[in-house]
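Hi W., the pyridoxal-5'-phosphate complex you wanted:
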Amino acid sequence: MARKTQESRRLQQRAEAVIPGGVNSPVRAFRAVGGDPPFIVRGEGPRIWDADGNEYIDYVGSWGPLVLGHAAPAVVEAVVAAARKGTSFGASTPAEADLAEVVLSAFPAMEKVRFVSSGTEATMSAIRLARAYTGRKYIVKFEGCYHGHADALLVKAGSGVATLGIPGSAGVPEEFAQFTLALPYNNADAVDQAFKKFPGQIACVIVEPVVGNMGCVPPASGFLDALRYITSRDSALLIFDEVMTGFRLAFGGAQEVYGTAPDLTTLGKIIGGGLPVGAYAGPAEIMDLVAPLGPMYQAGTLSGNPLAMAAGLATLTYLRDNREVYGRMERTAATLVTMVASAAKDAGVPLTCNRVGSMFTWFFTAHPVTDWESAARCDVDAFGRFYRAMLDGGVYLPPSQFEAAFLGTEHAEEDVRQTVYAARQAFAGIKAARAGTATS
Ligand SMILES: *Cc1c(COP(=O)(O)O)cnc(C)c1O
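Structure:
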């Protein structure tokens, strides 16, 4: 049954008159999938409700942060208690070191951390720091990896840029991106060649250790170790952008799961528990280059904001004290992804399922997806049809083939059952549409 959309459509039209595209982040637009984006008015646990009263199982989780689900009582209480004491001081508060200690306890290779207000700020600052530390200009990133919207990082940048089919971004002078080398993900040889071509000139390699921003793409066996080896060999820094994977794949992120330690780690999303927090961390030797101790400048009026610290601390302490949730999320996600895969098989719809822990993507292709080139070959029209049918079936997924979906601690068996049921209907629709085009 089609969902009601009248009120969301009215709100979208109103927003479009005053906000570009009606959205404050392009990934929220429904251009890639079609249909009316639901305007959300409330969330609780794994579910959200829109302005027309439709209820959805949410697999976006605010694009990653809400691992504990919506309006998690511990987080809400912590934020309210902090707000009662004042929302911002622009001076140090005890909560900042509280959160720093918990964050560092998760990452043994990191000794100091600086909080900022978004993942974009975290990666931008980490790169500035890598350049300051090494005195070098070039940086290596990978095609399809998204590291926020700083000028030098908007090169073959995955996520919304890929969804909208934009190669880079207008407004970035060539000169600002000339030191960014974009290489194919999972291709260690390409990295080795780049280091041979620019010896002693590459400051860092920045990578999503598990990619979420071209859809979920795991690192090939040995890829992260090869990056570790090559960067160390040339005295360049290795940056793991764990804005998405930190505290999601394990308490200690992808570096815990894969056993490879980077030099710098960038964080965001979950560490803010739904409020704006980003961070970059590393050994004291490198982090002490940051002002006021050193010459690398980075600042923020609302950095370490008390409400954001409170939400982050409530989220991380819950995860730290309930580590069994990682195993549970993994099992629930595995069941969900496998059951949807077999529903696709039954309907004869080619589907490739990539999943790491509670991150996953259903790619509409028969071929393995290991990098941007293989991701880009997916049937995005089939994805759009699937997407709209899932929405009608009460399932809210990221509105793009090139984004990862997330499951949280609150998703239960009944959510999985409803999702699989909706997927069966959706695949039947795709199969019928294909039969229709074949005969007409
Ligand atoms: C979301 C994301 C960012 C950007 O974070 P914002 O808070 O949106 O600025 C950077 N890197 C990765 C890997 C991300 O997933």
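The pocket of pyridoxal-5'-phosphate is lined by residues 118-120, 123, 146-148, 208, 212-213, 241, 243-244, 268, 278 (CB under 6 Å).

W.
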